[in-house]
Design a protein that fits this description.
The protein has about 250 residues and is α/β, with parallel strands linked by helices. About 35% of the residues lie in helices and about 15% in strands. Strands 3-2-1-4-5-7-6 form a seven-stranded mixed sheet, sandwiched between helices. One of its GO terms (molecular function) is hydrolase activity, acting on carbon-nitrogen (but not peptide) bonds, in linear amides.
Length: about 250
């Protein structure tokens, strides 16, 4: 039986479910670009418009940040070869603190899962890809949980999570302490961040689409890229090698 995650063919359908504009690019942009180059029809569904993001000074002065970031999402998606972008309309929950009214994490999980499930039923993808949430952001965890809930009880697509292996994330944190000492991630317990390297099921070489990934990153002008300031070697590792973990779902034999 063909493995749709590794043997991507023209006409395949992929659904990428993320929480915020830029997750599709900063997170799994190379995988999206690779699927598109191989002929897959890629849909990105984004749960929020990223209203709680911290804009680069001068990038969104006097503008609606959510509108700015939605526009960046659509331009970056085009760079990556995405066929369709859908927004679910929840508000950004923010990294921590009280949950804003209408935010993603304030919504019942079944409601979010139902919204994703409707798109899955319409698109009928072979692969659904999310971020695994191992960076500690509660919205990333919420989208992953909703995808598992939406897919858990019936035969359907392969579900995979894009991961940040512990070994790689610790290298990133070490370099960020020098170049960006005020990042929120330094306040978290390093032991709680990243995915155990033993959980990784697939490592993809995505070097062939590096130019597309870089072009998409450049479209997210309102946000600081997590790769800014990294040494050239570590930046290349992040942008040309992607780590995935297949999710075993309830009732599935896959």
């Amino acid at each position: 039986m063909r493995d749709p995650l590794l043997d991507i063919r023209p006409g395949d359908r992929w659904l990428i479910a993320v929480a915020h504009p830029d997750d599709e690019t900063f997170g799994c942009g190379s995988v999206i670009a690779l699927a598109s180059v191989c002929g897959a029809e890629v849909t990105v569904v984004c749960a929020t418009r990223g209203e709680a993001g911290e804009p680069v000074p001068g990038s969104a002065d006097g503008a609606d940040l959510g509108a700015v970031r939605e526009d960046e999402l659509r331009r970056a998606a085009e760079r990556l070869g995405v066929r369709r972008v859908e927004l679910l309309g929840y508000r950004d929950s923010g990294f921590d603190g009280d949950l804003p009214a209408g935010s993603l994490c304030a919504a019942p999980l079944d409601e979010v899962a139902g919204a994703l499930g409707g798109l899955i039923a319409e698109i009928r993808p072979q692969v659904v890809l999310t971020l695994d949430g191992s960076d500690g952001h509660r919205d990333h965890l919420r989208v992953g949980a909703a995808a598992r809930r939406a897919l858990g009880d019936s035969a359907g697509p392969l579900l995979a999570e894009h991961c940040l292996p512990v070994s790689l994330l610790r290298r990133w944190l070490d370099e960020m302490r020098a170049v960006r000492p005020d990042t929120v991630y330094h306040s978290l317990d390093p032991a709680a961040l990243g995915r155990d390297d033993a959980d990784i099921t697939d490592v993809l070489d995505t070097a062939r689409v590096l130019d597309r990934r870089e072009a998409a990153i450049a479209e997210h002008r309102s946000q600081v890229s997590p790769f800014d300031g990294l040494s050239p070697d570590l930046r290349r590792v992040f942008l040309t090698t992607d780590h995935l973990a297949r999710v075993a779902l309830t009732g599935r034999t896959r």
